[in-house]
Structure formats: C-alpha cells, structure tokens
Amino acid sequence: MSSSTSPTSPSTARAAAAWAPRVVVGAVVVALLLVGGTAIRVWQLGRVDERQPVDMIVVLGAAQYDGRPSPVFRARLQHALELYEEGVAPRIITVGGAAAGDAFTEAQAGEQWLVENGVPGQALLPVDEGRDTYESFEAVAAVADQRGWSSAVLVSDPWHSLRSRTMADDVGLDATTSPTKRGPVVQTRETQLRYIVRETGALIYYHLTHGSSDFSDPGLG
C-alpha cells in the first residue's frame, strides 16, 4: 500500500496569501517604530546636559591635524575646559588614537590643547588606546578601575551622547553626558538632522552587533 503527500488545499493557499501582506506590513511598521523611537531618544539626550560632580571628564576624540584639533574636536575640548573650571571633576581624560601616518594621537592633541589653555598637566590623562569608540571606553574603564575612579561625564557632540553613554555603561562606567552646543555639528538644522540619522543607524548597529561603527566626516573637519 503506497502513500502520497496531499497537495496544499486551495483554502490553505488562500489563507497564506492573505496573511503574507500583513506580515510584511507588520515587519515594516515594527522597523519604522524601532528607527523612529531610536531617533527620538538620540535627539532627546542630545538636548540634555547631565553635568554633576564626578571623578573624571572624558572627552571623545575627533580629527586632529599635526597636533591641532579640528573645529569639531576643539568645540568638545572647550566644553570640557568649562566643566573643569566649574569644578565638575578634578581631571580630564582625553581619548582617541591616530590615523595612519599621524604624528599625534587624538588624545595627545587634546591634552596639548588643554595644557595650552590653562589646565595643569597633572589634571590630564591621555588614553590613546582603541581603534574605535567602544575600545577607547574599554581602555578608559581599565585605567579608571586601576585608579579607583568610577563616575564620568562624557563630552562629545549632542547626537553622539546616547551611543557614547550606552557604550560607557556597557564597560562598567557610571556615565552621564554633557554635550557641547558649539561647533560645526550644531551650526545648521540640516547638519543636525544628518547627524541624528547617522547616529540612529550607528546605535541600532551597536545594539545588533555590539560593534562600533565610527565614521569621520571630512566635510566638517
């Protein structure tokens, strides 16, 4: 006695065909909610200054040219200097490595600028390890653990605040944010929108892969 597989009944095929568009629409809606919700959070935290007394001010690096911070980096350093002068923390940590062929790391360029603007050398610590933001935070966390520091206020551009704080929390730092409100990144609404979109994608990528998707923007310098 032989057996055979019954073909899919017409009613089953019709039901599957009816549900397929709903599944696609549902997936699109979920994706839009995820992207939209993340973008709103990026925008919201970028508008908040969480400064409070902490162990260290951590300045995230940006482009530098032969030891001279770019306008984007200089805006971050200026803001960190103001926090230091207000007594938010007794020390500033500068972070960031070097691109191929550079004589200075971002951390060194930041340290040099702060010294030139009145911060004593003993209040500065350059951490130039790590190939991206996440690895830089890992290096900062290791140094902080060795020295008994735990709390930090992070200084970067507004739209980088949420991703930075997320990474800092993941490596064990008790982090808040105080973004700079000056510099090329916040000059126009078009630039702000572009960076919100890019940071939204970068944060979603980080949550999905736990990898950093850092990028530079030579148009801003």
TrEMBL record:
Residues 55-200 form the DUF218 domain. It comes from the Bacteria. The keyword Transmembrane helix applies. Pfam families: DUF218 (PF02698). It comes from Actinomycetospora succinea. The keyword Flavoprotein does not apply. The chain crosses the membrane at residues 20-43. GO terms for cellular component: plasma membrane. This is Uncharacterized SAM-binding protein YcdF (DUF218 family). Keywords: Membrane, Transmembrane, Transmembrane helix.
